[in-house]
């Protein structure tokens, strides 16, 4: 592990019953690096993200975060890793602003950051709305806003473009680039070439294995449109 490496997965295997989800996967994410996972449904992207975030454990292999074993229960991980998973969740009776206030209090974030997150995700006009009054795209934006509000060295996103319209996807690509510029490592799964193009590297997965890993433009050139 080099001094710039933040997240390292080595020989990671994971099965669910007879279904093999990951086959000896190796992945390195450096500090401030943006890495996109691509591949068909069932290729292992979501499983790898859950393990990378400490939310699942491999059957074999090792995963380290900043040199220590990755675990969701590690206070360092909770304080430094932000996740937008593929299973959205929210409190039905809390407004958008109240959701973000909870995140701010939990992570010691100044309240001014709430307004910044609301504006960045185009939710400033919906701060008083409860989830049931939001569109599916706005709900996805709420999850992204919560992740961007908290302190983070690593941001893990599982198909964050879900339910977003084309304009919102373009803004999301800009946000991914901005995260890297501020020094946050971003590891995300996506099916969209435009969003993958915001990465420094693209890791292509198939049948639980990494079949390509390289600069985004080079790997995307091999992927059918």
From TrEMBL:
Keywords: ATP-binding, Nucleotide-binding, Transport. Coiled coil: none annotated. InterPro entries: AAA+_ATPase, ABC_transporter-like_ATP-bd, P-loop_NTPase. PROSITE patterns: ABC_TRANSPORTER_2. GO terms for molecular function: ATP binding. It holds the Pfam family ABC_tran. Residues 7-225 form the ABC transporter domain. Belongs to the ABC transporter superfamily. This is ABC transporter ATP-binding protein. It comes from Streptomyces fragilis.
């Amino acid at each position: 592990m080099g001094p710039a490496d933040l997240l390292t997965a080595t020989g990671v295997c994971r099965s669910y019953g007879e279904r093999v989800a990951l086959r000896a996967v190796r992945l390195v994410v450096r500090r401030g690096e943006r890495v996109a996972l691509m591949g068909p449904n069932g290729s292992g992207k979501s499983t790898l993200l859950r393990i990378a975030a400490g939310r699942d454990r491999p059957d074999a292999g090792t995963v380290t975060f900043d040199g220590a074993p990755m675990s969701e229960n590690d206070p360092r991980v909770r304080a430094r890793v932000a996740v937008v998973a593929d299973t959205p969740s929210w409190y039905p009776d809390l407004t958008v602003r109240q959701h973000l206030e909870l995140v701010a209090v939990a992570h010691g974030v100044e309240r001014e950051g709430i307004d910044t997150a609301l504006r960045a995700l185009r939710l400033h006009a919906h701060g008083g709305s409860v989830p049931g009054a939001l569109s599916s795209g706005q709900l996805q934006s709420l999850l992204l806003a919560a992740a961007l509000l908290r302190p983070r060295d690593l941001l893990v996103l599982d198909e964050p473009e879900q339910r977003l319209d084309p304009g919102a996807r373009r803004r999301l690509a800009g946000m991914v680039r901005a995260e890297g510029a501020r020094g946050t490592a971003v590891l995300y799964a996506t099916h969209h070439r435009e969003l993958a193009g915001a990465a420094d590297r693209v890791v292509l997965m198939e049948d639980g294995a990494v079949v390509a890993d390289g600069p985004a433009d080079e790997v995307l050139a091999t992927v059918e449109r």
